[in-house]
Write a structure and sequence with these properties.
The protein is mainly α and 389 residues long. The protein has one domain: Growth Hormone, Chain: A (Up-down Bundle). Helix 10 (205-226) packs parallel to helix 14 and helix 14 (269-289) runs antiparallel to helix 18. It contains 18 helices and no strands.
């Protein structure tokens, strides 16, 4: 039976987020098992996150300017190396070799993201129906499933289950990508001045401010995710509970993502972005106040009004804010904030945790999230003023 493009896209999102879970969700568990300190884990995540943040807009710009370069080609050129790294990792021993390969998985998995978002809008513009909210919801659901399975298997068989899982998932992901048709418009040539990256941000000032807000939101989000294992341990928990905590936050995303289309009909993407910023702040505050692993499980429910909203709202906010011919570049800038947030979150979280302890790290994290709300509010208000002008 031939699946529709919408169903194949849903499978693509699901498999991608399982890959992302294997790479980013278990970085602390894997590198801690290889003997790396919290600060060392932060440095690795930061270094490769910075590479991803710089690479995404560059590849997005290339895709927008050259009609021969497609989102599918970009995804395949990033996923094949991901598979190769996963296969090599169990064969190479040592702390820093493990850190290098895990860093490469973070770089590659983060860089795939904007091209998945671009695929959605390419299909929509060509008349194909793609339910992005449901597709992204399936992504969260399979992220949760992946977190539970990988966490259970890693506890039973050891940390090398992490790259093995990434390899298996990426093979299936590649097979689905190869079954996806590509629909691209021939793009008109643009002047060098217009496509200059500095010029891009100057042309979209409200979008640029929202990027800063997203950087702060995601920095707070990454601190909690990267050091979730250490947070659980500081509350008396064990490493086996990491998979449950990751699964809990992914499961609660699903209803919001499935219902996002209805939400978007009632509220603007800008308003939903502002709501997400407030959600990230609430989550950060509750983590700072938490005292047990059971509380952490409950706090993960705030993922519904933080990252779940952000995941879809950011894609539509970018689409509505950026000109049609620069969509991939816009999506790449937005998703690069996840990578840049990984840099800041990993560095700030690791340094503060090492120097001042868990309580201080969680308090600093809350302050960062509040700054995200401030800049999101500035962006929303400035966009309204620009529309009136």
């Amino acid at each position: 039976m031939k699946l529709s493009i919408n169903n194949r896209y849903m499978a693509l999102q699901g498999l991608y987020w399982m890959m992302f879970c294997a790479a980013s969700g278990f970085i602390s568990l894997y590198l801690q098992g290889r003997g790396l300190s919290s600060a060392g884990i932060g440095n690795v995540t930061a270094a490769f996150g910075m590479m991803a943040a710089l690479l995404q807009p560059v590849l997005g710009r290339i895709t927008d300017r050259d009609s021969r370069v497609t989102w599918r080609g970009m995804i395949l050129s990033l996923t094949f190396p991901f598979l190769l790294v996963c296969l090599v990792m169990p064969l190479v021993k040592g702390t820093w070799s493990g850190a290098l390969f895990m860093g490469l998985l973070i770089l590659l998995s983060n860089t795939i993201m904007p091209f998945l978002n671009t695929a959605h809008f390419d299909y929509s513009r060509s008349g194909e129906f793609i339910n992005f909210g449901v597709a992204r919801g399936i992504g969260s659901g399979l992220y949760a499933l992946g977190a539970l399975l990988i966490g259970f298997l890693a506890e039973k068989f050891g940390i090398e289950v992490v790259p093995f899982s990434g390899a298996v998932i990426s093979v299936i992901f590649i097979a689905v990508v190869l079954r996806m048709p590509v629909t691209r418009e021939i793009k008109p040539a643009k002047s060098e001045e217009k496509t200059h990256q500095k010029g891009f941000l100057r042309r979209y000032p409200a979008f640029a401010v929202m990027l800063l807000a997203c950087l702060l939101m995601l920095t707070a989000h990454i601190i909690l995710n990267t050091y979730l294992l250490q947070i659980i341990q500081s509350r008396g928990g064990e490493s086996s509970q990491l998979g449950i905590a990751l699964a809990a936050q992914a499961v609660v995303e699903v209803p919001v993502l499935f219902g996002f289309n209805k939400l978007h009909k009632r509220f603007s993407a800008s308003s939903l972005m502002l709501t997400a910023a407030v959600g990230f702040s609430l989550k950060a505050l509750l983590f700072a106040l938490s005292s047990s692993v059971e509380m952490i499980y409950l706090i993960q429910c705030t993922q519904m009004i933080s990252f779940a909203l952000f995941a879809s709202a950011s894609v539509f906010y970018t689409s509505e804010s950026i000109a049609k011919e620069e969509q991939t570049t816009g999506q790449a800038y937005m998703t690069s904030m996840i990578a840049a947030g990984s840099v800041l979150g990993s560095l700030i979280g690791g340094w503060v945790l090492e120097l001042f302890g868990m309580s201080t790290m969680l308090f600093v994290n809350f302050l960062i999230a509040v700054l995200g709300v401030v800049f999101a509010l500035i962006s929303v208000r400035s966009k309204k003023l620009l529309l009136k002008a």
